[in-house]
Structure formats: structure tokens, C-alpha cells
Design brief:
The protein has helices at residues 49-57, 99-109, 114-127, 143-155, 173-190, 201-207, 225-230, 235-240; strands at residues 11-20, 23-33, 38-42, 64-69, 72-73, 84-87, 161-165, 193-198, 210-215, 218-223, 245-252, 255-258, 261-262, 275-279, 285-287, 296-307, 311-318, 323-329, 344-349, 355-358. The protein is of the alpha+beta class. The chain has a six-stranded mixed beta sheet with strand order 6-7-8-3-9-10, with helices on both faces. It has a five-stranded antiparallel beta sheet with strand order 13-12-11-14-20, with no helix packed on it. Strands 15-19-16-17-18 form a five-stranded antiparallel beta sheet, with no helix packed on it. The chain binds adenosine-5'-diphosphate and magnesium ion.
């Protein structure tokens, strides 16, 4: 976690609720964000991400709840007094102004002297690698450059908190991948507490110190990328992040069983009315010889192999009809050696990869 900015502030959201008619955009949200942390709100469209960001920025007043920046309660503080920089879901740049005009706007709002504005705008443009672009018009810029102007405008007054709402969603994949790394390095450099919104799970995993998974205005889980992927709190989180096979399992005494077969699992199973085995496709082995001791094995019939360039997917049907999907790396020769449709095969899952989760959707 970055601590470069001693000015960074922790954020404390507590019991925040916002309704629009019958819609609970935010449903009793509580969240502690550490000073200097890069935290991502990840969730499907309509889950409440933008609403939460707007509450943090001060553009939306919640029905209930409290919001603190450091020790200061700010729920009644207007946006321009919150010391928050924000990029909006649309770029929201002023098309008729130059790049420098756009970036300098927050400083003019704050009555910063002209000479200082010029200097700070130049600095912010350098930071986002747009040095020398000040006189360009917005419509002369590419999507990636416009996005960087929006970031420069958000950071030019050196806010202690930076909020970004799906800043990369309009960009194509190559540029998005590159900008993810750029924004992350910018965060390392400036160290401000950052709340980032995306619906893209890979983007969230790539960029974040921690991720809050949001659904129906509630936080389903708040965890590091690795914990989220490896120990999802429920089926919604497991399904939203990565691919998985889910098998219904039950508790029998001390054991977790799948179809009468006791499973070896490294982490304890949660207490929940329904349980699922979550198997990530890249953790499943195609067994040929004798499996390692304690490895869970599943008899199956091979279905199709799907070639995807860097990897392949092999679907296999278990006795109970469930499909297990296995993903393997494509190396010289591996694809040619794979089973054909109808072959009897055996799949293996190590205890560490045999994750038992709460089977409920939320
Ligand atoms: P997200 O950013 O995750 O896509 P939003 O926070 O924009 O989700 O929206 C959450 C829910 O609140 C949605 O159902 C949306 O339709 C509703 N909503 C958001 N803003 C308004 C508004 N100004 N008026 C009415 N409903 C709104
Ligand atoms: Mg949104």
C-alpha cells in the first residue's frame, strides 16, 4: 500500500442509505478506506457504484448515514470544500476549452492566481504524460488522451482524495491495459486515497489494494484481490470474479461430501444453509497416473475441447450430469494430446483448491 502522501486521508462510510423511489441504490453501506489506499468498487451495472462515489464527492446527499474524511464529518460539506478530485463516468470535459483551460478549471474555481495556475496545469499535464498539449482542443485528442486530461483536472489542485468512475470503460483493450498500469503508477507517485469504480473484474484485480464487491446497493465482500478470488464470501462474488464450476455439497458430520464422496478441503467450510464446492478451471488437473495423496478425484466423460490461443478449455461431464470445466495452458503438443469427446477421464483437485463456499446468491 502506498504511503507516499502524508496528506492522504482515511475515509469512513457508515450506514449510508440512498433510495430513489422503490430502488435502494445504497442499502446501509459501511466501509473503512485506509489512508493512501487504492480501493475499487466492483459490481454490475446498476449496483450502486456511481451513487456511492457521488455521496463521497458530495453531489448526492444520502437519506441516512455518516461520512468522515479523517476525523471530520463531511456529510453536509459541499463538494468544492471536500478536497476531493473526481473523474466522471463520461469525460465531462468542456469541449470548447483548450486542454489547459479544462485542467485549470478547478484552480480558477478556487481563485488561484493566474501565474500559479499556469505552473500547476503544466505540472499536472506532465504527470499524466501530456506535457506540451495545453493549447490543443479537446476534440483534437484521442480517447486515451482525453481520459488523461480528465485525470489531470482531478489531481491539479492536489486533493487528498481521488475518485474515478469507470475512467477506462470507453477505451479499447490495449489502451485500457496500458492506462491501468499508468493510473496505478500515478497513485504510487501521488499516494492519495483513491476510490476507483469499474465493472471489469480483471481491471479491479490488476489495480487495487482492496476491492469492495457491490450488488443491489450492498457490499458483498471487501477483500484483497487474492482473497476475493480464492476465498469468495458467496456465490455472487465467486461468479462475478473469474470462472468457476459449482457443485452442490452437503455437510455430513464433520465432513463435506459430494455425491457420497468425502472431500479433502484445506480451509474450513462456512456455516450456511447451503454449500457449494467452487472449482476454478485453471486449478483442476487432468489426471493420468496415480494422483497425489489427498487429492480429490472426479470420474468424468470428456466433452469438447475449446481452443482459445493461450489456453484451452476442456469440458467434462460428471456422473451427476454437472459439467466441470478445466483450463490448461497451450504449450507445444498439449492440445494434440487431449482427450476426445466421449473418453473416460479423471479430474483432480488439490485440497487447497477445494473451496467450500456459502451457496446463497448474496
Ligand atoms: P452503477 O454505477 O453501479 O451502474 P448507479 O449508482 O448509477 O449504479 O445506480 C444504482 C441504482 O440507482 C440504479 O437502479 C439506478 O437506476 C438508480 N439511480 C441512480 N441515480 C438515480 C437517479 N438520479 N434517479 C433515479 N434512480 C437513480
Ligand atoms: Mg455507474
Amino acid at each position: 500500500m502506498s504511503t507516499a502522501n502524508t496528506q492522504a486521508l482515511p475515509i469512513s462510510v457508515s450506514h449510508v442509505t440512498k433510495t430513489y423511489g422503490a430502488v435502494h441504490a445504497l442499502d446501509d453501506v459501511s466501509l473503512e478506506i485506509e489512508s493512501g489506499e487504492f480501493l475499487t468498487l466492483l459490481g454490475p451495472s446498476g449496483s450502486g457504484k456511481t451513487t456511492l462515489l457521488m455521496v463521497l464527492a458530495g453531489f448526492t446527499r444520502p437519506d441516512h448515514g455518516s461520512l468522515k474524511f479523517g476525523d471530520r464529518e463531511v456529510i453536509r460539506t459541499p463538494p468544492h470544500l471536500r478536497d476531493v478530485g473526481m473523474t466522471f463516468q463520461s469525460y465531462a470535459l468542456f469541449p470548447h476549452m483548450s486542454v489547459a483551460g479544462n485542467v485549470g478549471y478547478p484552480l480558477r474555481l478556487r481563485n488561484v492566481p493566474k501565474a500559479e495556475i499556469a505552473e500547476r496545469v503544466a505540472g499536472a499535464l506532465e504527470t499524466v504524460q501530456l506535457g506540451g498539449f495545453g493549447e490543443r482542443r479537446i476534440d483534437q485528442l484521442s480517447g486515451g488522451q482525453r481520459q488523461r486530461v480528465a485525470v489531470a483536472r482531478a489531481i491539479v489542485f492536489e486533493p487528498r482524495i481521488l475518485l474515478m468512475d469507470e475512467p477506462l470503460s470507453a477505451l479499447d483493450k490495449k489502451l485500457r491495459d496500458q492506462m491501468q498500469i499508468e493510473l496505478r503508477s500515478l497513485h504510487e507517485k501521488l499516494g492519495m486515497t483513491t476510490v476507483y469504480v469499474t465493472h471489469d473484474q480483471r481491471e479491479a484485480l490488476t489495480m487495487s489494494d482492496r476491492i469492495a464487491v457491490v450488488n443491489h446497493g450492498r457490499i458483498m465482500q471487501l477483500a484483497t484481490p487474492r482473497d476475493l478470488y480464492e476465498k469468495p464470501a458467496n456465490r455472487f462474488v465467486a461468479d462475478f470474479i473469474g470462472d468457476s464450476t459449482f457443485l452442490p455439497v452437503t455437510r455430513r458430520g464433520q465432513q463435506i461430501v459430494f455425491e457420497d464422496q468425502p472431500l479433502n478441503h484445506a480451509a474450513p467450510a462456512p456455516e450456511a444453509p447451503s454449500l457449494l464446492l467452487m472449482a476454478r478451471p485453471e486449478r483442476i488437473h487432468l489426471l493420468t497416473g496415480t494422483p497425489q495423496e489427498r487429492m480429490n478425484t472426479f470420474e468424468a466423460v470428456a466433452q469438447q475441447v475449446i481452443y482459445q490461443g493461450d489456453s484451452y478449455l476442456l469440458n467434462a461431464q460428471l456422473h451427476n450430469g454437472e459439467i466441470m470445466s478445466l483450463r490448461g495452458a497451450v504449450r507445444q503438443g498439449t492440445v494434440d494430446g487431449l482427450p476426445s469427446e466421449g473418453d473416460r477421464i479423471r479430474l483432480g483437485l488439490a485440497p487447497e483448491d477445494t473451496v467450500i463456499i456459502d451457496g446463497r446468491e448474496s
